[in-house]
Amino acid sequence: MAGKDQGTAEAASKHPIPPGFENALVSPEAYKEMYAASMADPDAFWGEQGKRIDWIKPYTKVKNTNFNFGEVSIKWFEDGELNVAANCIDRHLATRGDQVAIIWEPDGPETPAKHITYRELHDKVCRMANVLKDQGIQRGDRVVIYLPMIPEAAYAMLACARIGAIHSIVFAGFSPDALANRINDSEAKAVITADTAPRGGRRTPLKANADAALLHCKDSVRCLVVKHTGDQTTWTEGRDIDVLALMGAASADCPAEAMNAEDPLFILYTSGSTGKPKGVVHSSGGYLVYASMTQQMTFDYKDGDIFWCTADVGWVTGHSYIVYGPLANGATTVMFEGVPTYPDAGRFWAVCEKHKVNQFYTAPTAIRALMGQGPEWVEKYDLSSLRVLGSVGEPINPEAWVWYDKHVGKGRCPIVDTFWQTETGGHMITSLPGAIETKPGAATLPFFGVKPVVLTAEGGQVVEGNGVDGVLCIGDSWPGQMRTVWGDHQRFQETYFQQYKGYYFTGDGCRRDEDGYYWITGRVDDVINVSGHRMGTAEVESALVAHAKVAEAAVVGYPHEIKGQGIYAYVTLMNGVEPTEDLRKELVKWVRTEIGPIASPDLIQWAPGLPKTRSGKIMRRILRKIAENDFGALGDTSTLADPSVVDDLIDNRMNRG
Ligand code: WT7
Question: Region (Disordered): which ranges (predicted)?
Fold first, then answer.
């Protein structure tokens, strides 16, 4: 999306820092000084920053990292010991035990909100931790969490952290198959789920999905069920456990395990350009330092502020900016069960008014969807509590940025456009409210400790200076960086460190403009970004070809008004199969059940043949152009085995927009 109007937006002048940010945590001068210090001596810089959290055993070493392909190794604070849950709860009890830690806002406004204090959070987390221990979960074991946006999701994460178990959250929108794959790949001992999940007035049958998934998992996997709605579910004696009942009976006292800084805190599966989703492994110490520092500084979070990140805990944004970052800082964090448009398009703003939200953090896709409903939905509410607005998930198009600034922020709230990834643990390139002037659509400048490097896509030459384009790499490690791919360190190295030697490769393209600001221009690999959610085209393709009537499939992204990118599938049917509208619907439904609704193809084109090279490689460049309705310049098609297939694909293209 950024590409379209980038030229004019870039030329536009910077938006100055609005009044009221003179005393922001980071001033323009402090940003420059601290950034320079973080580059000059990372050991000294992070050695100091590491003290923002409590250590059971202080570290004596800070950075020990290696980006060389073949020997990649990332360690931070490696001899330190800590407990993440104790940092997010216990250490606040003396000073803010009665302060609200989590405000839970339910799906429907008629249901009352819940206000959970740090003391209550401690009680719940200890009880849940004891329930896990009673089920035989020990330090180092994996626990899959398949929960909706309810407080128990945060309790479950922190309960795992408390006993040293590694959680792996599976987004509640994922299918039973996707859940089973993640339970099996992580060799989880238990899955924590709920009966059903209300969302936008509808209910997802989570427990039924878990039942279906568990048919493909070891019999020993326990199923801990949170009875959230009270809806009827099936019950397998001996396997299913009523968590809330057991929590009621459990002890509210549970010691926090001393974990090494490098012990994994969680695994989160994410899509890549090839193969099945990877288990991204995050550490305990470095991750927490980075999540807490970015939450505080990027949003200029001050004691007493109400912070709302609208993401789902099923994504990394929810991990770092609903749970770990805010709670490590003793913040009050809002957790929202619903969707932006239910019961109406004013829901976000109603919640901001109701809970007097100070920092609001959402995705461009939500802004675009609400923009389409008209500003009157925003204007109905008192948004005077808002101070900082955030954006995350994909490049924000300047129109959406300007609308967000004008109608939501009333021109007085800095917008922080935070570029980062599941792999990075926290913000990488972002403005800071009191320190960095913004430009609509630009992620602006690197966070402390982050060294962006622009390389030529082919050849990987470093591109110096400003006003340049290339692929975005990072030159050195930062504490929040992922440590490995679960069970496959080789894949970690190959995915991120092989193509451009000595660098971490983000997979994104970028431009560094005349002012040195970074503009992320989108993925340069076979990953598409649908409503801020990452999808591997290979995953959708393999779901499609798993259907009996499909011979071959190729999937690409195309520009979509609301979603940013939509999913465009070219499908070759088995010999003799009729291409019908019903079959089209059937395939969409098929992908939804194989992966989940977020992977549903938006457009399916019947393709009698796909453009292939003589060696059989599909030329995606051509398919992308056709899907973008931009086939004027298809480039060189002479290497195709049968160039005539291209004409047929153009004639029958689906996106004539
Ligand atoms: C990809 C990572 C980590 C947050 C949620 C998505 C894109 C993310 C921005 C932004 C431009 C962005 C990139 C990145 N992306 N934020 N502010 N501006 N692009 O996490 O699923 O790991 O996806 O999202 O393409 O590589 P993710």
Answer: 1-21
φ, ψ at 119 (rounded to 5°): -65, -45
Substitution candidate for ligand 1 out of 280, 495, 510, 529 with most atoms within 8 A of CB: 529
Find the 132 Cα to ligand 1 centroid distance in Å.
33
Report which ligand 1 atom has the smallest distance to the Cα of 317. Answer: 4
Spatial separation of the C-alpha atoms in residues 106 and 104, rounded to whole Å: 6
Q: Which two tokens stand for residue 62?
A: 């800070």
Check if the beta carbon of residue 156 is closer than 8 Å to that of residue 169: no
pLDDT in tens, 276-314: 899 999 999 999 999 999 999 999 999 999 999 999 999
- Supply angle C-alpha 159, 207, 157, rounded to 5: 15
Instruction: Write down the pTM of the prediction.
Output: 0.94
Cis peptide before 452 (omega within 30 of 0): no
Report the candidate in 461, 463, 433, 457 with the shortest Cα–Cα distance to residue 445: 433
Is the Cβ atom of 419 under 6 angstroms away from ligand 1?
yes
H or E element that contains 309: strand 306-309
**Cα–ligand 1 centroid distance for 305 (angstroms):** 26
* ipTM associated with this complex: 0.99
| DSSP-based three-state secondary structure for 173 | coil
Question: Cα separation of 612 and 606, whole Å?
Answer: 16
CB atoms within 10 A of CB 507: 21
Q: How far apart are CA 648 and CA 643, in angstroms?
A: 10
- C-alpha distances (whole Å) from 455 to each of 205, 395, 459, 463, 519 are 46, 20, 8, 5, 14
Single-letter code of the amino acid located at 246:
L
pLDDT at 588: 97
Express each pLDDT in 90-132 by its tens digit. 999 999 999 999 999 999 999 999 999 999 999 999 999 999 9
Q: Whose CA is nearest to atom 2 of ligand 1?
A: 421
Name the residue among 642, 652, 543, 644 with its Cα closest to residue 607.
652
Sole residue written with tokens 């960086």: 481
Residue with CA nearest ligand 1 atom 6: 393
In the beta sheet, which residues pair with residue 573?
A: 550
For 437, half-sphere exposure in the C-beta direction (CA atoms, 13 angstrom radius) is: 8
